[in-house]
């Protein structure tokens, strides 16, 4: 609190932030736990949250290394060659895997590293982005973008990986991008936000593939 003399009156100038902060503290019930802010350590983007069973799950994009750099992925000769293009923005070369986080209460979080890695997606080499997960008949399907393609002549786009567990490990379901071309001018590396649309797309574009048959029953 600071005091200023105005004529014969003393006017109290109180920092509004102090008042609001004190008010907020007085409203917090005792014995209640709260998540940290930020809730998750590290540099992540595009978080999607799901409820599978009795746990909350967050699938984000790995944005950048923290104080301890992530271990490098293993690459096939084709993947290594794709990564040599001078047109690739260097931070994209670090985005070669996806992590997940789970919690029973939105307060305490467990880190599940590398639920999906390019070593298990032969056509993905970098810029693995924007995961989106669904569950059907006990199986888990993780959609993601990869390779930040700019034209239909480049290999990459939206892929789908499968696992028996929400924490993975996930592996490529069909051996190719699910969506590998520009559709109505939209980015191929943008996730699909509707689980129903995702499942129907699997049926249309991967019909007959046993790895995706359970998702087709969702439609």
What can you tell me about this protein's structure?
The chain is α+β, with helices and mostly antiparallel strands. 15% of the residues lie in helices and 32% in strands. It has a four-stranded antiparallel β-sheet with strand order 3-4-5-6, with no helix packed on it. A hairpin with a 2-residue loop joins strand 7 (129-136) and strand 8. The longest helix has 12 residues, at 16-27.
Map the helices and strands.
Elements: E1 2-6, E2 9-13, H1 16-27, E3 43-52, E4 55-64, H2 77-82, E5 97-103, E6 110-117, E7 129-136, E8 139-146, E9 157-163, E10 171-172, H3 195-205, H4 213-216
Antiparallel strand pairs: 1-2, 3-4, 4-5, 5-6, 7-8, 8-9, 9-10
The radius of gyration is 23 Å
**Strand coverage percent:** 25-35%
Major sheet strand order: 3-4-5-6
Count of β-strands: 10
Please tell me what the overall shape is. Answer: globular
What structural category do the secondary elements indicate? alpha+beta
Spans where pLDDT lies below 50 across 5 or more residues: 1-14, 188-196, 203-219
Cα(first) to Cα(last) distance is 63 Å
- Provide mean pLDDT, rounded: 80
Characterize the largest beta sheet: strand count, sense, and whether it forms a barrel. 4 strands, antiparallel
Q: In percent, how helical is the residue content?
A: 10-25%
The number of helical runs is 4
